[in-house]
Amino acid sequence: MNTLVLDDADREALKRPFIQALLTLIRAQDRSGAMEADTDEELLAPFVVTKVQKRDIPMFGDPDPDILGRVEQIYMAICWLIERETGIAAAPIMNIHHEGWGRIVIITGRLIAVNAYVRELHRFGYENLVQMETKALKLVEEGIAAIRQFPDVAAA
Amino acid sequence: MNTLVLDDADREALKRPFIQALLTLIRAQDRSGAMEADTDEELLAPFVVTKVQKRDIPMFGDPDPDILGRVEQIYMAICWLIERETGIAAAPIMNIHHEGWGRIVIITGRLIAVNAYVRELHRFGYENLVQMETKALKLVEEGIAAIRQFPDVAAA
């Protein structure tokens, strides 16, 4: 199994809420216990794909179903942080074309708290954990701001 | 090719906006012109599946991809009617599990104008055109009411 070699910044990011939430989700979904002995660095390794590695991933064919699972885990963790901050349940809806592009929205009540477009999912992955956290927190903040702007719709 | 035998009520429904919108969409998506010579009754035939016919459709395996296309056409036509009434662009997002159940939302701005759950899509179809129109118009009305309740969110 692959593992990650973390620098100091990534080691700090690993301890913060977003990546902790992601790890909790990954472990919660491991119903067979197959990953029980895996370290955090092993569980996070598939989420990190460097630019050089991406160049070697072909864009034809459909993206690996495991990738869609990881995208969903990222958006679930984002929902979790939104929920923790606002107290309002958030859920992702993913509409991904089989060729690897699409739209993901996070819904709270009747509000679209987050609206994201994704593409080239064949090559889904982040440069490092800090980049993953930064991008995720941007969506968390977008969601929280939308809920605060339209609280009655988010509670509808 | 199958065709429909219409009673008087269905013949009237065929002339009204929802089914006219659906037909326009179907014909617009027929880029190869393969359906150019088909009558309205032939184009609508796959949307009508009686209870007796449904009983014979097995629920195992994945639903026919053509079915998902028809579900999308129904929701696109619903969007079109919402848009015509409110002047606000509406778009469906379908999140359908491959086993034939899922969630469909219609989005206007940041508002979820319509929130629908679907299941047993293997057996997707309506008893007749009047039933199809009635069910669709219920969602059109739900969408219009939501937009009127939260106009600033729908325009966001």
Would you give an account of this structure?
Two copies of one chain form a homodimer. By secondary structure, chain A is of the alpha+beta class. The first copy, chain A, has a domain at 47-155: Protein of unknown function DUF269 (Putative cytoplasmic protein, Orthogonal Bundle). Helix content of chain A is 50%, strand content 15%. The first copy, chain A, is built from seven helices and three strands, in the order H-H-H-H-H-E-E-E-H-H. Chain A has a three-stranded antiparallel sheet. In chain A, strand 2 (101-108) and strand 3 form a beta hairpin. In chain A, helix 2 (17-29) crosses helix 5 (65-86) and helix 5 (65-86) crosses helix 6 (129-149). The radius of gyration of chain A is 16 Å and the shape is globular.
CATH topology group of the domain at 47-155 in chain A: Putative cytoplasmic protein
How would you write the strand order of the largest sheet of chain A? 1-2-3
As a percent range, the share of helical residues of chain A equals 40-55%
Tally the helices of chain A.
Answer: 7
Would you count the extended β strands of chain A for me?
A: 3
From the coordinates shown, what is the CATH architecture of the domain at 47-155 in chain A?
Orthogonal Bundle
Overall pLDDT level of chain A: 93
Q: Can you tell me the residue ranges of chain A where pLDDT is under 50 for at least 5 consecutive residues?
A: none
Strand content of chain A: 5-15%
Oligomer: homodimer
N-to-C SSE string of chain A, H for helix and E for strand: HHHHHEEEHH
Structural class of chain A: alpha+beta
- CATH homology group of the domain at 47-155 in chain A: Protein of unknown function DUF269
How would a textbook summarize the main sheet of chain A? 3 strands, antiparallel
Please name the two chains that share the biggest interface, counting residues whose Cβ lies under 8 Å from a Cβ on the partner chain.
Answer: A-B, 16 and 16 residues
Distance between the termini of chain A: 45 Å
Radius of gyration from the alpha-carbon trace of chain A, in angstroms? 16 Å
Pfam families (chains A, B): DUF269
Organism (chains A, B): Magnetospirillum aberrantis SpK
Protein name (chains A, B): NifX-associated nitrogen fixation protein
